[in-house]
Amino acid sequence: MMKKHSTLALVALVATVIAGGALAAEGGNPKKGKYLYKKHCKACHSAGAEAPELTPLSKTMKQWDRYFKRNKHKHNPDAWQALSDQEKLDINQFLFDHALDSDQPQTCG
Ligand code: HEC
């Protein structure tokens, strides 16, 4: 009896984690994210600049979420930390919505 119960609980937990994972980039404002991306990221991350060109379709949705979950930018950690959690969520949302495997893959424009 006990055993059956905990198995059910585990199944419910796993289902929650999976559903939560799929929605990882929910809650950000992609319009703001695009603006913030251009303002805070593009200077370095465009063709001919110091860092490799980076646009939404440089990565898959999962890869973007993983990057923002790690919440580290090794090469200019101060600027990264200066962004609020909401701002990072917005940027995450913009990149996620237009990732390589999204419905609307996009370069930054
Ligand atoms: C001051 C310049 C600078 C700014 C501003 C900057 N980056 Fe970077 N970024 C770099 C450099 C340099 C690297 C390392 C490139 C390499 O690995 O060769 C890097 C690496 C990265 C990587 C890893 C590259 C990869 O292919 O996985 C990601 C993702 C990234 N930056 C995202 C961002 C985002 C998002 C922002 C804006 C919030 C941002 N960066 C702002 C300079 C910058």
UniProtKB/TrEMBL annotation:
Record keywords, A-Z: Heme, Iron, Metal-binding, Signal
Residue ranges of domain Cytochrome c in the record: 28-99
InterPro entries: Cyt_c-like_dom, Cyt_c-like_dom_sf
One example GO MF annotation: metal ion binding
Signal peptide: 1-24
Protein name: Cytochrome c
